[in-house]
């Protein structure tokens, strides 16, 4: 068994920042990640980091833009924390040596991004995430923080009180991919989940193959509610054949979208008469698919993104990476021809319910970054707001977990305050299938003292692995692709009731199939078959909760569009959707959004660009 | 529409009737789904036989080894026939082979877009990132092996520990003591200086360069191209200051540092991010000479 004060799960942007912060606050920190830190998907972020750095800008304006972008489903205390602390965090990255793009006077450059009232997106070419990830990993090396890389965290060690709010997290159980050894990691002060996105729930995604939402699923099964899972961002500019991301920076620098008729449809068809291509991402994604559905798509699938008029010099200076991506993954030369693009799954606004310090309802369990939902992004995330979230909330969670006094949280977690039950009937059974056995299920622990809670969790993980390796059954890959296909077909940009219901039925079938899953590679050495099989269970749980939220939310807000409900319904729906696992019987409930900020209340206004 | 989990009966695909397709795009997607469902229904062996007979498949010969599994302890090559699709990369083909024929086929991969650096391999005799290597650019059969000059863990996975150790040996982190006054003041850096270090900052730690380097193969203590490039990235960054640069030059001038490089350019040739590694090493040599003359 390994023992540390703070255990950080995941080593991308949020995890690295959390580990550095916890160590600075005096804690003995370990990072546990299924990938080596530099392999994390933060490295694929392209566009930039929003920060109100300049005199003509203000954090208040950034907060206003973010709240509007969220379609008034962000919680003000989290939104304001993001906007207030992003500038100092960006400067800290600069002080750590991050190679930002520069102005003539040597200061950090900023460019316009969608939904922003000021050009406040700092960047390093079109490879901002890569530079940020490597800069922070450098600091982790410098500080000698312990990293257990290629250790896959299988489960959390959490006590089993009936009320999740009374449970405590004492550590994690991880599987050493290299050796096949299972080990407990005791966390004296806290566990911070920083496991990133869940894009593998869909099959056309900008996310990495590793983005299977492991942390969200583990927290969910341990009793932490998942919040606002139905809000998935579909990025308007991904390459059609692979889902590789083409940065919003292209449109920020002046790139233009055209349909098959050569029309600049964002203006000519009135989708966003003021901001055009730089409207919020949900608006642009819907516009593109509407063009395709109305017959003005190219090859009935995509639209064109043209940046040729920016000129070679500017493109090479600020967007060079885009040229390589378009060439390598779509065979398009961005200097001489428009690039084909279509919407693709990009980001999960929802995730593990936390307050503005990253605390979950379970004592000693934190979450930060894309896997968490504080909520900063509400119903739609603005471009350039994910990277600052990693560093601001990674830092906050790290400090809090290390025991720093940070005051009282404004955002409540769990069923406290004005929560209300949902009265939605799903028509299809959801949750744990009966008789699924130890191989498929992650039960709760049975003890309360740290040693036996962790020991019990280790034993269950070992049993699960042994059974998966020893029995005969079906390959997880077919189940995973069935889930991805139904999600991409039905829980996409456009959603309608009947198809959402069918999806729940499809997912039910997939759950039944998963009961017979087995790993055919018997090896204890680098058994990726085993890891992927475990991940597929996580994908299943997330897909179901996401679809439940999409069905229940009968309105159109931000990224969530419903055919039968074409307007935002503030009277009924200024509230977060929460799904609790409830020991295998998922339960939907709601809690109000917090629109009261430090000095002002954000009054919902109509959202036009 | 309902995407079926494969059933053993024929009619499950037949029963997969669509709601009225809204557009040609939708029809095409439905067709794609139908084909996918069909594919899943066939048993792997049948699939393999059919694929082997088909001309529009690509033949892969993949290195296999597992220290623990009987039959794999002696390294061997397995042949896979994968249906070719336009734009298919070596990584796509490997994933297809794994998900369709043999789930124990093991390789690292994550981002699929040449930024995580997980999937450097030896493809038809050259170090390549599998995700950005087009099958159509390769001669068949496509031979896929783990990176040479590294210990093989299993199949295409090699032990990266030595590579990481060399990276860490050059103090691979930005260091300076001179920060501007004020919490919100950035250090200034002119565009030329940023441009100077730009290529060096693109390294994704894939290890292709180290694997290609004859010198590194013979001298396991040699820092290697990637680590020296990291030192270059720091030493040339004007924000670190002169004093730090002196220290950096001392690090790379050590016995197993820059002077070991024999300028064979193999690292530069294989770098998937087009970093001029050999030039960077040469420039550090020149800097070191200038520096030594200064104190002479």
TrEMBL record, chain A:
Q: Which GO terms describe its molecular function?
A: flavin adenine dinucleotide binding; succinate dehydrogenase (quinone) activity
Name the GO cellular-component terms. membrane
Top EC class per UniProt?
oxidoreductase
> Pfam family example for this protein?
FAD_binding_2
InterPro entries, per the entry: FAD-dep_OxRdtase_2_FAD-bd, FAD/NAD-bd_sf, FRD_SDH_FAD_BS, Fum_R/Succ_DH_flav-like_C_sf, Fum_Rdtase/Succ_DH_flav-like_C, SdhA/FrdA/AprA, Succ_DH/fumarate_Rdtase_cat_sf, Succ_Dhase_FrdA_Gneg
User: What superkingdom does the record give?
Assistant: Archaea
One BP term from GO: electron transport chain
Which coenzyme or cofactor does it need?
FAD
Location in the cell reads:
Membrane
Q: Which intervals hold domain FAD-dependent oxidoreductase 2 FAD-binding? A: 5-387
Give its E.C. classification number.
1.3.5.1
In the bilayer, the protein is annotated as:
Peripheral membrane protein
- Keyword annotations for this protein? Electron transport, FAD, Flavoprotein, Membrane, Oxidoreductase, Transport
Location of the Fumarate reductase/succinate dehydrogenase flavoprotein-like C-terminal domain: 480-609
Which residues act catalytically here?
281
| Annotated family | Belongs to the FAD-dependent oxidoreductase 2 family. FRD/SDH subfamily.
Which protein, by its recorded name, is this? succinate dehydrogenase
Q: Which organism is it from?
A: Halorubrum ezzemoulense DSM 17463
Q: What high-level taxonomic lineage is stated for the organism?
A: Archaea, Methanobacteriati, Methanobacteriota, Stenosarchaea group, Halobacteria
Automatic annotation (TrEMBL), chain B:
Keyword Cell wall biogenesis/degradation assigned: no
Q: What biological-process terms (Gene Ontology) are attached? A: respiratory electron transport chain; tricarboxylic acid cycle
Ranges for the region named Disordered are: 1-56
* GO MF assignments: 2 iron, 2 sulfur cluster binding; 4 iron, 4 sulfur cluster binding; electron transfer activity; metal ion binding; oxidoreductase activity
Residue spans of biased composition, Basic and acidic residues class? 21-30, 38-53
Query: What range(s) does the 4Fe-4S ferredoxin-type domain occupy?
Result: 193-223
Which UniProt keywords are present, listed alphabetically?
A: 2Fe-2S, 4Fe-4S, Iron, Iron-sulfur, Metal-binding, Oxidoreductase
| Cofactor requirement | [2Fe-2S] cluster; [3Fe-4S] cluster; [4Fe-4S] cluster
InterPro entries according to UniProt: 2Fe-2S_ferredoxin-like_sf, 4Fe4S_Fe-S-bd, Beta-grasp_dom_sf, Helical_ferredxn, SDH/FRD_Iron-Sulfur, Succ_DH/fum_Rdtase_Fe-S, Succ_DH/fum_Rdtase_N
Question: Could you tell me which Pfam families the record lists for this protein?
Answer: Fer2_3, Fer4_8
The record's similarity note reads: Belongs to the succinate dehydrogenase/fumarate reductase iron-sulfur protein family.
Task: Please give the name of this protein.
Answer: Succinate dehydrogenase
């Amino acid at each position: 068994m390994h023992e540390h004060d703070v255990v950080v799960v995941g080593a991308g942007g949020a995890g690295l920042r959390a580990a550095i912060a916890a160590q600075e606050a005096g804690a003995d920190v370990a990072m546990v990640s299924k990938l080596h830190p530099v392999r994390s998907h933060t490295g694929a972020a392209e566009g930039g980091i929003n920060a109100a750095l300049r005199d003509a800008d203000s954090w208040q304006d950034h907060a206003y833009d973010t709240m509007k972008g969220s379609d008034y489903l962000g919680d003000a205390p989290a939104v304001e924390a993001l906007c207030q602390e992003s500038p100092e965090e960006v400067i800290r990255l600069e002080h750590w040596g991050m190679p930002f793009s520069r102005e003539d006077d040597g200061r950090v450059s900023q460019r316009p991004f969608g939904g922003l009232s000021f050009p406040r997106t700092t960047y390093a070419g079109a490879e901002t995430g890569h530079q940020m990830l490597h800069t922070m990993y450098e600091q982790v090396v410098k500080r000698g923080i312990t990293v257990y890389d290629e250790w896959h965290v299988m489960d959390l060690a959490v006590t089993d009180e009936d009320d999740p709010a009374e449970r405590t997290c004492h550590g994690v159980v991880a599987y050493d991919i290299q050796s096949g050894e299972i080990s407990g990691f005791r966390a004296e002060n806290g566990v911070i989940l920083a496991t990133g996105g869940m894009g593998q729930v869909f099959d056309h995604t900008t996310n990495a193959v590793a983005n299977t939402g492991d942390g969200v699923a583990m927290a969910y099964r341990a009793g932490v509610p998942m919040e606002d899972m139905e809000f998935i961002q579909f990025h308007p500019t991904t390459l059609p054949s692979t889902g590789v991301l083409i940065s919003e920076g292209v449109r920020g620098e002046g790139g233009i979208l055209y349909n098959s008729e050569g029309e600049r449809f964002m203006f000519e068809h009135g989708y966003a008469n003021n901001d055009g291509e730089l409207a919020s991402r949900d608006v642009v994604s819907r516009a593109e698919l509407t063009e395709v559905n109305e017959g003005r798509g190219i090859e009935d699938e995509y639209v064109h993104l043209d940046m040729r008029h920016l000129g070679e010099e500017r493109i090479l200076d600020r967007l060079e990476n885009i040229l390589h991506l378009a060439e390598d993954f779509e065979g398009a030369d961005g200097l001489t021809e428009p690039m084909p693009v279509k919407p693709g799954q990009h980001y999960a606004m929802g995730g593990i319910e936390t307050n503005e310090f990253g605390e979950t309802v379970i004592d000693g369990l934190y979450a930060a970054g894309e896997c968490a939902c504080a909520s900063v992004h509400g119903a739609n995330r603005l471009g350039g707001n994910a990277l600052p979230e990693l560093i601001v909330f990674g830092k906050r969670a790290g400090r809090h977990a290390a025991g720093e006094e940070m005051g009282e949280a404004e955002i409540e977690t769990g069923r406290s305050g004005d929560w209300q039950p949902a009265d939605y009937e799903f028509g299809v059974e959801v949750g744990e299938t009966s008789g699924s056995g130890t191989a498929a299920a992650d039960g709760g622990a049975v003890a309360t003292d740290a040693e036996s809670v962790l020991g019990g969790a280790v034993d269950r993980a070992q049993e699960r692995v042994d059974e998966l390796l020893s029995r005969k059954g079906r390959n997880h890959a077919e189940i995973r692709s069935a889930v991805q296909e139904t999600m991409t077909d039905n829980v996409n940009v456009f959603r309608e009731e009947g198809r959402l219901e069918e999806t729940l039925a499809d997912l039910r079938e997939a759950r039944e199939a998963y009961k017979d899953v087995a790993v055919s590679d018997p090896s204890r050495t680098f058994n990726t078959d085993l890891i992927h099989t475990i991940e597929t269970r996580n994908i299943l749980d997330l897909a179901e909760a996401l679809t439940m939220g999409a069905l229940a939310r009968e309105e159109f807000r931000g990224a969530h569009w419903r055919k039968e409900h074409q307007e935002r319904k503030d009277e009924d729906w200024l509230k977060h959707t929460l799904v609790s696992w409830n020991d295998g019987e998922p339960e939907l409930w709601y809690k109000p959004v917090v629109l009261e900020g430090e000095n002002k209340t954000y009054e919902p206004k109509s959202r036009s660009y | 529409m309902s995407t079926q989990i494969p059933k053993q009966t024929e009619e499950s695909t037949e029963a997969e009737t669509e709601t009225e397709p809204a557009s040609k795009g939708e029809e095409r997607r439905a067709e794609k789904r139908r084909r996918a469902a069909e594919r899943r229904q066939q048993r792997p062996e049948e699939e393999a036989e059919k694929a082997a007979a088909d001309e529009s498949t690509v033949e892969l010969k993949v290195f296999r080894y597992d220290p623990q599994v009987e039959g794999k302890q002696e390294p061997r090559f397995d042949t896979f026939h994968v249906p070719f699709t336009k734009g298919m990369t070596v990584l796509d083909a490997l994933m297809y082979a794994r998900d369709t024929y043999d789930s124990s086929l093991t390789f690292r991969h994550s981002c699929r877009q040449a930024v995580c650096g997980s999937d450097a391999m030896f493809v038809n005799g050259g170090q390549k990132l599998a995700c950005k290597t087009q099958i159509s650019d390769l001669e068949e059969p496509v031979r896929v092996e783990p990176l040479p000059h590294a210990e093989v863990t299993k199949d295409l996975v090699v032990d990266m520990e030595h590579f990481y150790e060399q990276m860490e040996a050059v103090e691979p982190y930005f260091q300076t003591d001179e920060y501007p006054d004020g919490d919100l003041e950035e250090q200034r850096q002119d565009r030329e200086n940023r441009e100077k270090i730009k290529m060096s900052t693109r390294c994704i730690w894939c290890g292709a360069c180290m694997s290609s380097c004859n010198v590194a193969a013979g001298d396991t203590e040699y820092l290697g191209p990637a680590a020296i490039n990291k030192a270059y990235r720091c030493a040339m960054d004007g924000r670190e200051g002169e004093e730090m640069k002196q220290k950096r030059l001392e690090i790379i001038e050590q016995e197993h540092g820059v002077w070991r490089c024999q300028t064979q350019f193999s690292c530069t040739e294989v770098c998937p991010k087009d970093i001029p590694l050999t030039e960077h090493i040469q420039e550090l040599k020149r800097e070191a000479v200038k520096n030594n003359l200064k104190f002479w």
